[in-house]
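Thread: Newbie trying to understand structure tokens

Hi all, I'm a second-year student working on a class project, and my supervisor (Dr. K.) asked me to get a predicted structure for one chain before our next meeting. I've only ever worked with sequences, so writing a 3D structure as a token string is new to me. If someone could post the tokens and maybe explain what I'm looking at, I'd be very grateful. Here's the chain:
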Amino acid sequence: MPVLDPYFVQVETSELADLTRALELLDSRADLNHRYRKMLDESRQLLTADQIRLTQARGLAKRLMVLIKAAGPDFPGTLEHESREILRAGETKADDLVFRPEGT
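---
Reply by user tm_fold:
Sure, no problem. This is what the structure looks like when written as tokens:
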């Protein structure tokens, strides 16, 4: 089976719902500076499309990882259980996109 070039593989943004929810959570709850806020805004704008390239989805996943770190090591502890689960689901999806890119 040939390996597909991830630049040409499209991903439905609906499949990235866990990333979207985690980004929304960070937007509403994390204390981020203007540079991180810009990253967050650009990420959310990209997710308004119906489909994006797999490479873009991986970039979003990496941004989410950076934004979670930027929120601080204590950030998850400031969240109620449901919000921690949203963040955890986003991290899991990000890990899957970045570290386990099956099908490419």
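A couple of things are worth pointing out once you decode it. Residues 11-98 form one domain. Residues 81-99 form the longest helix (19 residues). Feel free to ask follow-ups in this thread.
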